[in-house]
Amino acid sequence: MEAFLVAVLVCVAAVVLDWLLGEPQRWHPLVGFGRWASATEEKVNGQPQAAAKSLILGVFGTLAVITPVMVLATALQFWLSGWWWLLAQVAGVWLAISLRGLAEHGRAVSTALNSGQGKQARLAVGQIVSRDAGSLTDEGVAAAASESMLENGADAVFSSLFWYLVAGLPGVVLHRLVNTLDAMWGYRNARFLYFGRFAAKVDDLMNWLPARLTALTYALLGNTRLALSCWRAQAKTWDSPNAGPVMAAGAGALGVTLGGPAPYTNGIKQRPVLGSGPGATATTVEEAIALVQRGVMLWLVALLTLALGLNGLWPGGAG
């Protein structure tokens, strides 16, 4: 019970640290990991391969780049003790989440839209989505940014908190590494269709439960009835098993329509409609950011209340 309380306090400290400092602008460990992963992929996946061989190489590549980091993350708990180990955990969770960074990216889009600076808004949204930002209308820019806030809130914040609470520092490190590889190798093109499949499937498995907890969180903090209805009816139409529930519930909670056709460099992708209501605007982006932030606060308050109760430090708690 005391261990659970300490874990919750680590999450609180990491969120506060993220709020105060944001992401490191230089020497972020994930940036270094990404470069290492890219170099490894170029070496083992540089030539076209048969499907089976590409799949095997993808498994090998994933394990090759993840294993050394996981060994280090696991070994730290034996090398460090006391306050040093506690600080290492706070730092690990802080580096894994990106609540302030997510909000900053979203507000760069909404501020530009509110100022009538469409070109700047397209440049800003191009930093956070892979679609052809230059072909987006203002509504398309707002929708893309809102979708990114909702989906990345699940991937970059809620899932990281979940895996730290479930499996400690090794758990949150593994989640962020796998999620990073999925973002880098999870494309359905000739180069990555098979090579990136293992990382993508592991990412799907690790995010399955956190995504649904995130969707429930969005529903509780917005238009609950509409969010749950959209989740039930629309999530299964989305091509991602985890983004579907998160984005459908988020769009319903906000009372807006997201999804639909989106331009990419290789053409228009016909995506299902998510949510219900008017189209997205700059206000929608701000509301999506606020929904993620309120969700984090709800998690921390609920977890802290539970932890204090289990330790007999709250009226009516175990004594």
UniProtKB/TrEMBL annotation:
The cellular location(s) given in this protein's UniProt record come to:
Cell membrane
Signal sequence extent = none
Spell out the protein name for this chain: Cobalamin biosynthesis protein CobD
* Summary of the function given for this chain in its UniProt record: Converts cobyric acid to cobinamide by the addition of aminopropanol on the F carboxylic group.
The reply on keyword NAD is: no
**Gene that this sequence comes from:** cobD
**Its membrane topology:** Multi-pass membrane protein
Q: Where are the transmembrane segments?
A: 55-76, 83-103, 156-178, 296-314
User: Which family does the UniProt entry place this protein in?
Assistant: Belongs to the CobD/CbiB family.
Q: What cellular component terms from Gene Ontology apply here?
A: plasma membrane
Q: Which NCBIfam families match?
A: cobal_cbiB
Q: Pfam families in the record, alphabetically?
A: CobD_Cbib
Main location (coarse class):
membrane
Q: Which GO terms describe its biological process?
A: cobalamin biosynthetic process
Q: In which pathway does it act?
A: Cofactor biosynthesis; adenosylcobalamin biosynthesis
GO MF terms, alphabetically ordered? ABC-type vitamin B12 transporter activity; threonine-phosphate decarboxylase activity
Q: Which UniProt keywords apply?
A: Cell membrane, Cobalamin biosynthesis, Membrane, Transmembrane, Transmembrane helix
Q: Show the InterPro entries listed in the entry.
A: Cobalamin_biosynth_CobD/CbiB
